[in-house]
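Notebook entry, cofactor series.
This is the third protein in the set we're modelling with a bound small molecule. For this one the ligand is flavin mononucleotide. I'm keeping the input format identical across the series so the outputs can be compared line by line later. Sequence and SMILES below, as received.
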Amino acid sequence: MKISIIATSHRKNSESKRVSKILNNFILEVNSSVKCFNLDMFELNIPLWTSEKKDNLNFWDRKLKNISSELTASDGFIFVVPEYGGMATPNSKNFFLVFNNGELFHKPGLIVSISSGNGGAYPISELRASSYKNSHIMWIPENIIIRNVEQFLPGNHGKLIPSWIDNRIKYSCDLLIKYAEYIKPIQKFINRKDFGNGM
Ligand SMILES: Cc1cc2nc3c(=O)[nH]c(=O)nc-3n(C[C@H](O)[C@H](O)[C@H](O)COP(=O)(O)O)c2cc1C
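Returned structure with ligand:
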């Protein structure tokens, strides 16, 4: 069982990256046999999708294949998405255009939205509305919003972090792993090429 954790910030040393590491630890706490692949869209310098692939062969011919095979080998996904301007980040949307070779096909995903204030709802509704058509990711019916994220530090949370949040996150990680396990058999009954893009 492998879970990919994708940080979709546009900032160096982002809160998304920090939260991704914490989520990785929670997953191991829930199930120590799970392998995690961490992808930081900013640090790996994932370019915006373009038709002009020849201008950056280093990415489109080489780096992309390595990352794509890690994602293809994953059974489930966690997207850590900060709210920017009341929206999901461009990196979170770009991910679905760049990695469009069946990596997410009929696999479960958990959205973890973060905000330095009281926001965080918009990235969830945006991704739930528009990301699944061609990727065929299956968002599970739980999501997490970490508000006042700078105070989020399990074991030493700040005053604005609710005491129940760690348990809620562990529950959602456990659920994601269970979905990944039970959805897996479906994948072999579907030929992705039949209807590669959703309607
Ligand atoms: C360009 C930009 C726009 C932002 N817009 C919002 C917003 O609309 N709502 C909100 O709650 N927080 C907003 N924030 C604050 C971010 O949620 C907060 O800084 C978060 O920690 C960023 O995550 P990151 O460090 O992973 O990029 C914004 C931050 C940036 C950089």
